[in-house]
Structure formats: C-alpha cells, structure tokens
C-alpha cells in the first residue's frame, strides 16, 4: 500500500500542487482504558497522507494539560514506531495527561534517530542537547513544518492509580520455599517481602507491619527501602512475661541492628501471625501479606534458662543416644542447670531434597540476624555435631555470637570419623572457633597409620596449675572409629586439653585437642565430648568439665 502511494506521489510531483498534510489517529489498548486506565497504557497510532506517505511521528506526553498550547511549545520525541507502552510518571491518584501525536510525511528530508527531541517553536529544530532552547549543535528542520500534521491527534488521559502488590521472596537456600520464619522459633524471627507497583515500584512509599492484628490498629511503619525486619524480645522482657510480650522491630544485620519500633502482643508458647501491607504515593494499599504463608504455622517458644543446646547431629543413627547422653547423663546431673532449665534446638531435622538446612534454621538470608539473635537469647550455647557439621550455619553465626558484647559463651564439640575425608575444605572452623589452623592430616601413630582407637585420659593443660580443667576419660567401648586432626590455637587462646603423649610420635607428643580463647568466651573440642565418661575419673569427667566451663563463663558457680 505504501509503495503504490509512493509511486503515485512521483507521478504527480511535477504538477507543483501544494503538499497536503498527513492526518494522525490513535487509540489505546484496551479500549476501555481511557475511563478507568492504569498508568501503564499501550498506545497505538497511525497516519495517513493523501498525496504521499507517512515517514514518522512526533509524540508528546504532558501531565496536567488539557489542550495543546498555541503556539505549540511542547517537547516532542521522534519515532518511526506506531505503538508504545507508555509508562506515565504517575505521582497522584488522578492525574491528567495530554498525548499529542503528529504524523510527518515524505516531504520531510532529514533522517532523525529514534527518540530525537523535537521542538516546533519558535521554529522547528532538533534539540540535541535537550535544554529546550535552540543553541549549540541543535539542528534546524526547515522542511518539518510543511510535512507535519498541523492538527495532530490529541487525547486527554485521566489516569487512575493502581494499588501496589506484595510478594513473598524465596529462601536463598532453596528457591522453592519462601523466606519466612521456621515453624517453631524462640522470641526472634525475620521476615522479608517484595513490593511491586504497576505504576512504578518507586511509587511505593512505605510498608506497615502488624502483629496478630490484621486491622493494623497500631502498626509499625517502615520506609519503602526496608523489605526485611526482625522481631526480637530481650530476655529481660520475656523472662517476666507469661502469655504475651512486646517485640522490638529491628532492621539491618548483626552487628549493625537498629531498633526502629515495637509491636505489642507477641504470644508466648503459642502461634503468631505477622501482617505486612504496602502503601503507594497515592495512599493506596496492597493486599495484606501474611506470615506464616498459607498452610503453615509459626509457633513462638518462650526461652528458658541460660543454656541453649544446639544439636547438629544426625549421623550414624545414634543421635538419640547422643542426645540422651548430654541431656540425661550430663545436664540432668548439674543441679544449677536443672533448677534453671535450658533449651534445646535440633538444626538438622526436616531437611528436604532441595533444602539442606534443617527446618529449624531460618532462610539463608535470615541466619544473620535471626539465628544469631536467637543464640544471643542465651548466656551459653553448647553446640555438638556429628562428623558433618552445619559449617555454613556456624560460620554465619558463631563468631559474632561469642565476640560481641551482647553475645555469650560457646562450647563447640565436633568429631572426625574419616581419616581421608575432606573434613574442612573451606577452612571454616577457624572462622568461628579460636584456632589458627585445623590440620589437613589426621593424627598418626609410629607406624604411620591414622589413629582411630583411643583410650585412657585426655590430660588438662598444666601450664596454668591454678586453672586446671578436669581430666576426661575415654569411654573405652565406643572410643574407636574416629580420628583427631591436630589444631593450632590462635594467638589469644590457650590449650586446655592434650592427648597423652606415649602413643604418638614426637611431633604429636603433646597433641592439643581443646582450646579456649583468652577472654573465656569460647571452647572448641576436636573430640566429641560424648566419647568421654560423664562421671569418671574421680574429680573429672564431662559433668565436671561443664561445671568448670560454666564457672569460667561466670554463668553458674
Ligand atoms: Ca503530504
Ligand atoms: Ca538546545
Ligand atoms: Ca500505585
């Protein structure tokens, strides 16, 4: 069609008839949109020229105008396209936009780039430097005016705001699940969301947050840049509470958490819900996003006692036996601990084929701060592991826990079972316990074989005679099938236990197996404590070890 028109023009061009102006038309999609439009609209236009053909268009989109000014001082952009998804820069609920489109016919002889800014007044020019005056390298367009649709097509758009929307965000450990609190937490939990607005995500101004109250009676409001918050209750507040307690609202990550508000009504030893709503610049609100998500619960346990036991243990099918050892054979025999109570968390249960973190471990992006703050509810964390500890979880949380003023004390005991295992490929241990190195090579005997059978005593470091740790005695019947990787303490730590010297070569004559930092905040033992007798030898054993550690930590005398 265009080609036949073109040849038509050529045939008649010698007749010196004046050029006829093109005409311009447009509509928007969907066509119901003009009345109840949203601030993103598909515009479609076309031009017709009676004595030639249309080569391009200039388009102006101007807020708060109802007619084209005379003279036309609008700023146009040039395009060869015939449609556009127009994103109106909406800043009010009902803002009006004027769209003016003028076709250009084939008598215009300048090739303009897509998007060139065009002014028609005081004369036609290409405003190359976009400053609304004719200057510098701007280019005059003397043939434009006569090639232009002088009437143009114009349309007023009353634009209606659309409310924002709120979405869950994925757990960085598993994109198939949401970043939301574990089904059971203590009095700390983190929440993340993502706000969207069809008018432009930047038109969201705030989020309001409410606890157990979908009516948002007394919400905490955060700015739109905050899309993760953490609820936390200090022990000084929860210890005296019975059924409900106020929760602080924190932003940021440890050690830079900032308290920005408080929500009342966190239910202890009960289920809870957190509600979030987005508010845009026009004051419109999103649907309410609820935590926990559908078909899930969030139960908050009131913390008790000063000790949190972290079970990082599945291996070998003996996890129940190991748990019984600590809970029944050791902690049940420490009167102060029994009087005070303590808490227990298993961080290895409820793993899935796609999520290796246990179900009690927060979303990966929430370990700091939610998991760190959970540990900090307690004066002491006892963390025991099988041969495959949750090193990333420990790495994200434990150094901060025992090195910060609001943290506590750590006893970390692990075990190594495979002499050829790549037991610490990322060199993770030195990030969270007071050592410089954990050897790559397991302890060997005089024949060069890895030592996998242990017996007798582990001796306390005797360099500080006044501060001896109680001796520990291997439980002979299970003291096989594991090995020891020698450690080198860091400069501000001391060894507290050694393997006895007689069975090992000179270089391992005094093999350290436990270390404590100089501030007495962290103890690391490379032999699983459950390998030792709880009660023997006389004056020693694992019960006495914990009593000594609790005294050193100034938790229980
Ligand atoms: Ca024409
Ligand atoms: Ca200019
Ligand atoms: Ca909006």
Give a brief rundown of this model.
With 557 residues, this protein is of the alpha+beta class. Helices cover 14% and strands 33% of the residues.
Q: How would you characterize this protein structure?
A:
With 557 residues, this protein is α+β, with helices and mostly antiparallel strands. It folds into three domains: 23-160, Immunoglobulin-like; 165-300, Immunoglobulins (Immunoglobulin-like), CATH 2.60.40.10; 307-552, Rossmann fold. It contains ten helices and 35 strands. A nine-stranded mixed β-sheet has the order 26-25-27-28-35-34-33-30-31, with helices on both faces. A seven-stranded antiparallel β-sheet has the order 9-8-7-4-3-6-10. Helix 7 (367-375) packs across helix 8 (391-403). The chain is elongated and about 120 Å long. The N and C termini lie far apart (97 Å). One calcium ion is lined by residues 161-164, 197, 199, 203, 280, 282, 284.
Keywords:
557 residues; alpha+beta; Immunoglobulin-like; Rossmann fold; 3 domains; nine-stranded mixed sheet; seven-stranded antiparallel sheet; 10 helices; 33% strand; elongated
**Beta-strand content estimate:** 25-35%
Amino- and carboxy-terminal Cα gap: 97 Å
CA radius of gyration: 36 Å
What is the count of structural domains?
3
Which small-molecule ligands are present, each listed once?
Answer: calcium ion
Number of E strands: 35
The overall pLDDT, averaged over residues, is 89
What does the overall shape look like? elongated
Provide the CATH architecture of the largest domain. 3-Layer(aba) Sandwich
CATH class division of the largest domain:
Alpha Beta
Helix fraction bin: 10-25%
* Regions with little confidence, pLDDT below 50 for 5+ residues: 1-13, 30-36
Individual helix count:
10
Q: How does the major sheet shape up?
A: 9 strands, mixed
Strand line-up in the sheet with most strands = 26-25-27-28-35-34-33-30-31
Which fold name is given in CATH as the topology of the largest domain?
Rossmann fold
């Amino acid at each position: 069609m265009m080609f036949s028109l073109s040849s038509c023009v050529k045939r008649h061009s010698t007749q010196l008839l004046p050029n006829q102006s093109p005409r311009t038309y447009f509509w928007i999609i969907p066509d119901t949109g003009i009345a109840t439009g949203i601030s993103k609209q598909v515009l479609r236009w076309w031009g017709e020229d009676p004595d030639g053909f249309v080569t391009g268009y200039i388009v102006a989109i101007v807020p708060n105008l109802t007619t084209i000014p005379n003279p036309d001082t609008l700023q146009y952009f040039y395009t060869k396209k015939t449609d556009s998804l127009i994103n109106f820069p909406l800043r009010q609920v009902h803002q009006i936009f004027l769209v003016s489109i003028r076709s250009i016919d084939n008598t215009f002889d300048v090739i303009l780039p897509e998007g060139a800014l065009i002014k028609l007044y005081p004369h036609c020019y290409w405003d190359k430097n976009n400053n609304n005056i004719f200057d510098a390298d701007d280019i005059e367009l003397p043939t434009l005016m006569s090639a232009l649709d002088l009437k143009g097509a114009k349309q007023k758009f009353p634009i209606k705001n659309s409310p924002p929307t709120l979405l869950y965000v994925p757990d960085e450990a598993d994109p198939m699940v949401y970043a939301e609190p574990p089904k059971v937490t203590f009095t700390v939990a983190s929440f993340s969301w993502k706000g969207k607005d069809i008018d432009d995500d930047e038109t969201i101004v705030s989020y309001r947050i409410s606890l157990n109250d979908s009516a948002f009676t007394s919400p905490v409001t955060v700015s739109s840049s905050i899309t993760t918050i953490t609820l936390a209750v200090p022990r000084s507040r929860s210890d005296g509470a019975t059924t409900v307690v106020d929760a602080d609202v924190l932003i940021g990550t440890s050690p830079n958490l900032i308290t920005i508000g408080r929500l009342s009504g966190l239910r202890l030893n009960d289920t809870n819900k957190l509600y979030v709503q987005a508010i845009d610049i026009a004051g419109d609100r999103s649907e309410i996003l609820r935590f926990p998500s559908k078909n899930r619960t969030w139960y908050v346990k009131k913390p008790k006692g000063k000790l949190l036991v972290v079970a990082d243990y599945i291996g070998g099918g003996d996890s129940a036996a190991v748990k019984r050892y600590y809970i029944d054979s050791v902690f049940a025999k420490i009167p102060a601990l029994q009087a005070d109570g303590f808490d227990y968390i298993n961080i290895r249960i409820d793993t899935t084929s796609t999520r290796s973190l246990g179900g009690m471990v927060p979303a990966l992006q929430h370990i700091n701060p939610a998991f760190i703050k959970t540990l900090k509810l307690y004066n002491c964390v006892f963390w025991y592991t099988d041969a495959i500890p949750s090193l990333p979880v420990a790495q994200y949380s434990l150094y901060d826990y025992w090195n910060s003023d609001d943290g506590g004390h750590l006893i970390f005991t692990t075990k190594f079972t495979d002499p050829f295992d790549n037991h610490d490929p990322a060199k993770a241990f030195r990030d969270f316990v007071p050592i410089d190195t954990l050897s790559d090579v397991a302890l060997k005997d005089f024949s060069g074989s890895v030592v996998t059978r242990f017996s007798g005593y582990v001796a306390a470091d005797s360099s500080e005679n006044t501060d001896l740790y109680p001796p520990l005695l291997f439980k002979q019947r299970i003291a096989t099938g594991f090995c020891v990787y020698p450690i080198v303490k860091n400069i501000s730590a001391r060894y507290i236990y050694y393997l006895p010297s007689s069975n090992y070569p000179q270089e391992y004559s005094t093999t350290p197996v436990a270390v404590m930092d100089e501030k007495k905040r962290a103890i690391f033992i490379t032999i699983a404590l459950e390998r030792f007798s709880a009660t023997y030898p006389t004056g020693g054993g694992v019960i006495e070890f914990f009593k000594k550690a609790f005294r050193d930590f100034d938790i229980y005398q």
